[in-house]
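Here is an idea for our session: we take a single protein and study its fold together. To get us started, please write out a protein record for me. Once you have written the record down, we can walk along the chain together.
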Amino acid sequence: MHKARLRARNLSGLFILLAALSSGEVSPAIAGQQQTDEAARQRIADVIRPTGDFTKPEKFELRPAGAATVFKPVNRDIFSHSSANMSFERELTFKVGNGIFKKLWVSSPSSTTASDGLGPLFNARSCQRCHLKDGRGHPPEPGEVAESMFLRLSVPPRTDAEKQLLAERRVAVIPEPTYGGQLQNFAIQGIEAEGEMTIAYTPLPVTLADGTVVTLRKPDYGVANLKYGPMHPDVMLSPRVAPPMLGL
């Protein structure tokens, strides 16, 4: 009997709702929810709307990364802080990983067994030697050995099997036959590094929209002092600068 009454009451409420909808009337609860949704949509639209005034920061630029935004002094360590919304346990994991990221590795055998295993060929002794202060790398200055920038090596496919691998996206490139997919310009004691990356710059005048002429530098990359024989004649060089690691 109780279930029958409850079912009848639910059906009665449903009929009233359908009648209100068919007559164009909206209950105060539904109208209030619609207003709330519209206000939320408008608030989001206000935040993401492109600015037309570049003379001052936008109102919502205080937290460009949302809850992850860090308010720290802007200095050489600004990229090395953890995200502000990390939990205590997550931040502990971050700090342990950051210690490994900065660790200088050494070759085996070594008394520091927790840090051995470097080489025999390598590009840097630590992650941070490439990702400088968790920021991006840079091309080497004249007379400087490249450490935060290196060369990827590849060759065109030579066989049907290699063409098939590329077509099926099972590999991204075909490595250079002797030196592999990356030129390694450092080596442990007693071993010769693979070679050196060279950069030659050509001045390139460029005229800006207002007529100002500026001079850029057009780089030309190459390899020198190869210690393990010549490279494939069709080798392709792809210079890579280490990307920033903000908040990671």
In short: Strands lie at 121-122, 149-154, 186-187, 196-207, 213-224, 236-241. Residues 163 and 169 are 10 Å apart (CA to CA). The first strand starts at residue 121 and ends at 122. Residues 2-62 form one domain.
